[in-house]
User: Which sequence fits this backbone?
C-alpha cells in the first residue's frame, strides 16, 4: 500500500483496533467551564469498545456529567507504531460491576482497593467519529 492507500471500512476498523491494542495511553479532552481540558489516561479496549478507569471524585467526571462530549488522541509515541488515532465521542460514566471487573488490572491498585472500590468508575467511551492515519496510509475517517 502506498502513501495514498485507502482502506475499506472493515480494514479501517481492524487498523483502528490494532492501534488501540498497541497504545495503552491516550490524551482525554473534556470541556471545563467552556474551555478544553486535557489529561493523560490509561486506555483499555475490547475491540472498538474503549474504556478509561477513574475515580468518581475527579474533575473529569464532573466535566463529563456537565458535557459528555470528549476527544481522545493516541499514537505516535516514541518506539510505538507511529499511527495516530483521534476519537470524537460521548462518554457515559458507569459503575457497572461487570465492566469494572473486565477493566480491572493490578496497575489500578495504586488508586483503588479493588474492582469493588466504590470510588472506582469506568468512562465508557462511545466513538461517533474516528480519524486514523497509519504509517502507509492517508488520513481516513470512520463514522458510526
Assistant:
Amino acid at each position: 500500500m502506498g502513501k495514498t492507500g485507502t482502506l475499506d471500512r472493515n480494514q479501517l476498523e481492524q487498523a483502528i483496533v490494532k492501534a488501540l491494542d498497541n497504545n495503552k495511553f491516550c490524551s482525554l479532552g473534556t470541556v471545563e467551564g467552556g474551555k478544553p481540558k486535557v489529561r493523560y489516561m490509561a486506555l483499555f479496549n475490547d475491540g472498538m469498545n474503549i474504556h478509561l478507569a477513574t475515580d468518581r471524585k475527579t474533575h473529569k467526571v464532573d466535566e463529563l456529567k456537565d458535557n459528555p462530549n470528549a476527544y481522545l488522541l493516541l499514537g505516535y509515541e516514541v518506539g510505538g507504531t507511529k499511527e495516530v488515532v483521534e476519537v470524537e465521542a460521548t462518554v457515559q460514566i458507569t459503575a457497572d460491576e461487570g465492566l469494572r471487573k473486565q477493566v480491572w488490572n493490578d496497575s489500578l491498585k495504586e488508586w483503588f482497593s479493588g474492582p469493588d472500590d466504590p470510588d472506582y468508575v469506568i468512562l465508557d467511551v462511545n466513538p461517533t467519529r474516528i480519524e486514523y492515519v497509519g504509517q502507509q496510509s492517508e488520513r481516513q475517517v470512520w463514522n458510526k
